[in-house]
Design goal:
With 332 residues, the protein is an alpha/beta fold. The strands form two sheets. An eight-stranded mixed beta sheet has the order 3-4-6-5-7-8-9-10, sandwiched between helices. A two-stranded antiparallel ribbon has the order 1-2. Helix 1 links the parallel strand 5 and strand 6. It is globular.
Length: 332
């Protein structure tokens, strides 16, 4: 698989492993009522087309574009704190649902990092913008690194949260037993069918367990945990959302994975803020440390004490202050 495949052309074609359905944004809920990812708030929900698929976004404010990309097992709502803060500071804040998640399309293919990064840059163009400040968390942070390499002219500044540079992550998975063990859930995702069933069983209890165990002392509030447990139960989400992790491990020794790693040697020219929770049990801080080696532009490393895998939710005020300061320094 090449790192920059052609956009999906046959969304109606079904893969052999599991049926993939169009996204409705709804999941089963108690009492027979549907639960929707389009939570009410000061933001506006809409869909737009990019890179051969349909993407759901939540948008608030006007000014320079800040595109927010969630990680697993979250969706756009992970950025609710930052949406309002960015809009109040004079930015056009847009939170995206990645391909296969939330209210976006669940396509049969296209979950390698090259194509997912083209989704992100395509959304920027579909929003009518030439450039954007890109913010990505966890798997969304990995894609932010990739987008900055593949489409450097589109990325005005980069903020990466809880995500090592792809070459550092690859190296750690091949040589670091501690990081490999911390990715135990990713190892479990490699089996066919079984992970999807486990993720949605018992009202997505396993996902709730991940969310609770991956945070620092502050944790996530109950409403957030409930929302992410509901979101993973939207039909086909469990399957689509873990396909990037299947690519990650299965490609380590394949030609497409090796080619991708070589391509990621290209220096990043966007000013980069790299935020990491010191108590993150999933992406270990020593794995994330060193991303500046690949940045040929201003680079800032921030390690947040007592914060786990979700800095933007565990410490929203501290995180947002760091973000606003960084993009404010790189408006031009």
């Amino acid at each position: 698989m090449a790192p920059t495949p052609e956009p999906e052309r046959e969304p109606g074609r079904k893969p052999a492993r599991e049926p993939v359905e169009a996204a409705s944004g709804d999941a089963p809920a108690q009492g027979g009522e549907a639960w929707s990812v389009r939570q009410a708030g000061p933001w506006t929900h809409r869909d737009l087309a990019a890179n051969g698929a349909r993407f759901h976004i939540a948008e608030l404010g006007s000014g320079p574009l800040v595109l927010l990309v969630h990680g697993w097992p979250e969706y756009w709502w992970a950025w609710r704190h930052q949406l309002t803060a960015l809009a109040a500071a004079g930015y056009r804040a847009v939170a995206l649902d990645l391909r296969g998640v939330g209210g976006s399309d669940r396509t049969p293919r296209g979950y390698d990092p090259g194509n997912l990064a083209l989704d992100i840059t395509g959304v920027i163009r579909s929003l009518g913008e030439r450039r954007a400040h890109l913010v990505g968390h966890a798997s969304g942070g990995t894609l932010a690194w990739v987008a900055a390499v593949m489409r450097p002219s589109v990325i005005q500044s980069l903020t990466v949260v809880s995500a090592a540079h792809p070459r550092d992550l690859r190296r750690a998975l091949l040589t670091d037993r501690r990081q490999f063990a911390a990715f135990e859930h990713v190892l479990g995702f490699q089996r066919p069918w079984i992970p999807e069933r486990r993720l949605v069983a018992d009202d997505a209890e396993l996902v709730g367990g991940y969310l609770t165990s991956w945070t620092g002392p502050n944790g996530l509030d109950e409403a957030a945990v409930h929302a992410y447990r509901q979101a993973i139960q939207i039909p086909s989400t469990a399957h689509c959302s873990i396909e990037p992790y299947r690519w990650l491990l299965r490609s380590l020794a394949r030609p497409d994975g090796i080619q991708f790693a070589r391509r990621m040697k290209k220096p990043i020219t966007a000013p980069t803020l790299h935020i990491q929770g010191a108590a993150d049990p999933v992406l270990l801080s020593h794995t994330a440390l060193g991303g500046g080696e690949y940045v040929a532009a201003p680079y800032r490393w921030r390690l947040l004490p007592g914060v786990g895998h979700f800095p933007h939710e565990e410490a929203p005020e501290e995180f947002t202050a760091e973000l606003l300061d960084w993009i404010g320094r790189h408006k031009e």
